[in-house]
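Structure in, sequence out. Go:
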């Protein structure tokens, strides 16, 4: 997993589950030091965010907040 596909894979969970694509892109670029990654990362994050929206999944922090408020 040393190549760009592995690095793109690190960004996708952040985009789909937490819905923070920009944070995922910045973290991966900073940790890898690769300046050629932003465009592939943006594409991967956009696809992950779009898929999560189309499937109707709720961002993890929103669902945790609703669950916490519901139990009070």
């Amino acid at each position: 997993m040393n190549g760009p596909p592995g690095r793109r894979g690190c960004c996708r969970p952040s985009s789909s589950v937490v819905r923070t694509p920009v944070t995922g892109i910045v973290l991966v670029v900073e940790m890898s030091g690769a300046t050629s990654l932003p465009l592939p990362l943006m594409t991967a994050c956009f696809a992950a965010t779009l898929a999560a929206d189309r499937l109707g999944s709720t961002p993890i922090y929103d669902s945790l907040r609703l669950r916490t408020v519901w139990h009070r």
